[in-house]
Amino acid sequence: MTDISPLPWRKSSYSNGSGGNCIEMVELESGGTAVRDSKDPGGPVIGVSHRAWADFVAAVRNRRLG
């Protein structure tokens, strides 16, 4: 298993200083994307393909979820 804790995690642009509901993501060398809860960086991590992450972000931006 690869230790991903030292990688350059990026916080959602919707994040604020008040501890809102936020996620962090990092692009992996394998070509995938790892996603975690920014309030619990030591907690669970979800790994998805880069294509799946790009599709998810596009769906959120275009309000196609819900």
UniProtKB/TrEMBL annotation:
Protein name: DUF397 domain-containing protein
Entry-linked Pfam families: DUF397 (PF04149)
Source organism of the structure: Streptomyces violaceusniger
Domain of life (superkingdom): Bacteria
Ranges where the DUF397 domain occurs: 8-61
